[in-house]
Amino acid sequence: MFSDTAKVSLKAGDGGNGAVSFRREIYIPKGGPDGGDGGKGGDIIFKADKDTNTLIDFRFTPILTAENGKNGSGTRSAGRSGKDLIVEVPIGTIVKRDGEVLADLTYDGQEAIIAKGGEGGFGNAHFKSSTRQAPIIAEVGEPGEEFEAEIELKLLADVGLVGLPNAGKSTFLSVVSNARPEIADYPFTTLTPQLGVATIDEKDILIADIPGLIEGASEGKGLGHDFLRHVDRTAVLLHLIDVYNNDAGEAYRTIRGELDKYSDLRDRPEVVALTKCEGVDQDIINMQMASILAVNPDAKIYAISSAAHTGIKELLRELRQIISARASLHAGQISRSLAGPAPGAVRYSAREASRNSLGFAQSEQKLPSADSNEDFEHPREAESAWREANREHSRHDSIPTISLSPKETKTTWKVDKVEDEEGNIKFVVTGEKIEKFARRTDMNNYASINRLRDIMKKLGIRAELTSQGAEPDSIISIAGKEFTLVEDW
């Protein structure tokens, strides 16, 4: 059974708790703290596998859980890290979280960490110092990431077959490749996408066949709209039209209208093929070609017969040529992006950020040179562009771009005064660094809570709470953990 979409609940492993322990051996008084750290929770890793071709397994295992890290123990023994959970998925799988793409696995063996395991908590041996020689503080492990992932499979192919139902797509695929799709004389014979490999001039072409499209497919009619994603990544579309169609131009217009409404297929290279041309008069073929050209004067049209094997090689060579051209263009774009802008090109590039004593970063802009004219047909164009760029730069010169450095961004925090339905007031503190400390705080250990209060004081959070009217018995909430501002109130 084929399945190209799935939803699965992911739960990465929780980190292990640190241990509170003191060395106790004969003849060694006051051995000191020796509590070990907790182990890291296991990650959930998706791995592309060439031997997997469907997402059906996720329907039977809708919940994936990685192993938790083990707790630390005495003698500074760290807990064992949880084992990573490796999930094999088909090549072309896209993993999303709330609509945001987390991973796009496009080649065999590619791996991506989808859900990260929690870090293990420190044991009390980590907190010893000259002034704190017997700490009874230990951190709890951080929880692993937990969320529902949306998984989508987009087949990776060179050519995508599109057309109305019963246009001869499956027959064409069975002739040019070893694929054996179901073939019959009724519409919607193809219910799931099919892949086949065609060989022409000792070069392979991977072809994807999807169920036939009908008018309104982009709005959910028919079957093809569910599988249009599988031609999203193709280099070229092969549009098959039955030569016996009453109006080939209208059939072409219908399919193009549906493709234009879906993704970026509007600009995808396309080749049109009139199928079932065996025994058809040339006048009829010319008439159907003229009908298509009336809709798209630039269309490349071939007359083929899958049953008689006529026109197949010429069509495959044309497809191979387009695929090679697209591959060369893509490789050139990658090379240019790696090499950077060409000499003399008008550009604005960010220099290395210069830091000041406050920890801020200021970015500067690089202006084009006045004598850089390699990208212009006439030197005056280069000079004009240079002057315009200078005017834009001088216009914004008095307003430099100021931003916090990455280190300072992590220490930022915010305090919100919140009132619930019953009129109770609590203060919610948010911020990457302070929330991380709160998640690792053992709320059953008063010394750990006091440590969190000390951290809040050093970061200036306590002063802000006081300025907003927080009392000693006020409830403070950080990362879902609540406690009073002052101990034992």
Task: Supply database-style keywords.
alpha/beta, Rossmann fold, 4 domains, six-stranded mixed sheet, 21 strands, 25% helix
CATH homolog superfamily of the largest domain = P-loop containing nucleotide triphosphate hydrolases
Second-tier CATH architecture of the largest domain: 3-Layer(aba) Sandwich
CATH fold type of the largest domain = Rossmann fold
What Rg is obtained from the alpha carbons, in whole angstroms? 32 Å
Number of domains: 4
How helical, in percent, are the residues? 10-25%
% residues in beta strands: 15-25%
Largest sheet, described in full?
6 strands, mixed
| Average of pLDDT | 81
Q: What is the β-strand count?
A: 21
Distance between the termini: 62 Å
Q: How many alpha or pi helices? A: 10
What is the CATH class of the largest domain?
A: Alpha Beta
Question: pLDDT under 50 segments (min length 5)?
Answer: 342-380
Order of strands, widest sheet: 10-11-9-12-13-14
The coarse silhouette is elongated
Q: Which class do the helix and strand fractions yield? A: alpha/beta
